């Protein structure tokens, strides 16, 4: 039987153009930008790629929501990038494990074309494998460089917060918050550079809401240890958070509810921290804000957590929570309805 022979060149889908590996990379046919890859000892491109684990690169780029992978790198069976591409006698290429599983199920056809196979041999597509390696390696190295850059920026911003004042401080906090949200790996950098204790120190009785709202927006995105949470429970800091929950923007209010709920998960938390009429009134006002479902859900979630402390339930009832929640029930989403019903059930046991 005739057997498919691996060619030295590779055919792109659609256009039928025959190209070799170096031409594809140099001319940027598959998205470009690979020209910066270092050459190996033999002068071939993609030598760095061979030193990196392809599967690891694919996973990290996928989790980072990087650019779309060229369709020619995708296995038609799994719709995932190929790590070990092999070609059938029909000229179609698949991930080795996927096509072998296809054969093990008794199929004797090509999954893409449904042609009957005259030879079930699979040939490693080394050219495509090199090209996949080169493409992912280049983008992986760029991702790592960007990550190092943003970590450096984050450390610099933390240091600058020790010096800057006024609007410059607000802007530095905004920049740090944007980096923390966009690059989760920066969280450790912020903690290692003393960022948590520094940010905590910025919260106090004389802190402006402009600064306070940005600090809270950063803290709710960090992993805080027990000591940090205990420090943040100081009355002056909680008082500022409650003020912002009453007067801040909707985003600030949501962040404040997340912040308080985060503190409530700490073993050293005491119910007195949330036994404020001003806090409860602000939460009910947030829950009644029909224009923002996210704010409503955040408010109900915190109110449910507060209701778990029996000592505060009578205070919640005293601010009119029961009739207000009952009135809202008919128009709540399923998720919010469940939260509201749980709160009402807890409050029903209050004398």
From TrEMBL:
GO terms for biological process: protein ubiquitination. Pfam families: ARM_PUB, U-box. Its EC number is 2.3.2.27. InterPro entries: ARM-like (IPR011989), ARM-type_fold (IPR016024), ARM_PUB (IPR058678), PUB22/23/24-like (IPR045185), RING-Ubox_PUB (IPR045210), Ubox_domain (IPR003613), Znf_RING/FYVE/PHD (IPR013083). Residues 68-142 form the U-box domain. GO terms for molecular function: ubiquitin protein ligase activity. It comes from the Eukaryota. The keyword Transferase applies. Keywords: Transferase, Ubl conjugation pathway. Pathway: Protein modification; protein ubiquitination. It catalyses: S-ubiquitinyl-[E2 ubiquitin-conjugating enzyme]-L-cysteine + [acceptor protein]-L-lysine = [E2 ubiquitin-conjugating enzyme]-L-cysteine + N(6)-ubiquitinyl-[acceptor protein]-L-lysine. The keyword Repeat does not apply. Functions as an E3 ubiquitin ligase. This is U-box domain-containing protein. It comes from Ensete ventricosum.
């Amino acid at each position: 039987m005739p057997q498919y022979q691996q060619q030295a060149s590779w055919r792109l889908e659609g256009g039928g153009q025959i190209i070799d590996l170096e031409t594809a990379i140099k001319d940027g046919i598959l998205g470009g930008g690979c020209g910066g890859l270092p050459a190996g000892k033999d002068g071939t491109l993609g030598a760095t790629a061979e030193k990196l684990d392809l599967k690891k690169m694919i996973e990290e780029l996928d989790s980072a929501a990087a650019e779309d992978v060229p369709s020619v790198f995708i296995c038609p069976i799994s719709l995932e990038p190929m790590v070990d591409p092999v070609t059938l006698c029909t000229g179609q290429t698949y991930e080795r494990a996927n096509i072998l599983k296809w054969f093990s199920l008794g199929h004797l056809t090509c999954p893409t074309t449904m042609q009957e196979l005259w030879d079930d041999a699979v040939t490693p597509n080394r050219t495509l494998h090199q090209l996949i390696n080169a493409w992912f390696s280049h983008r992986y190295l760029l991702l790592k460089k960007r990550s190092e850059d943003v970590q450096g920026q984050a450390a610099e911003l933390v240091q600058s917060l020790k010096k800057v004042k006024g609007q410059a401080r607000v802007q530095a906090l905004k920049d740090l918050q944007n980096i923390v949200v966009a690059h989760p790996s920066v969280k450790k950098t912020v903690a290692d550079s003393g960022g948590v204790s520094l940010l905590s120190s910025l919260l106090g009785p004389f802190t402006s809401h402009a600064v306070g709202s940005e600090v809270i927006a950063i803290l709710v995105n960090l992993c805080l240890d027990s000591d940090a949470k205990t420090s943040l429970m100081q009355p002056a800091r909680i008082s500022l958070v409650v003020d912002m929950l009453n007067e801040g923007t909707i985003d600030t209010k949501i962040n404040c509810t997340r912040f308080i709920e985060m503190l409530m998960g700490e073993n050293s938390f005491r119910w007195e921290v949330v036994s404020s009429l001003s806090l409860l009134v602000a939460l009910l006002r947030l829950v009644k804000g029909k224009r923002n479902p996210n704010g409503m859900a955040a408010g109900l979630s915190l109110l449910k957590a507060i209701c778990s402390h029996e000592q505060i339930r009578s205070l919640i009832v005293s601010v009119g929570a029961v009739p207000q929640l009952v009135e809202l029930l008919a128009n709540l989403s399923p998720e919010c309805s469940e939260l509201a019903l749980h709160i009402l059930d807890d409050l029903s046991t209050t004398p």
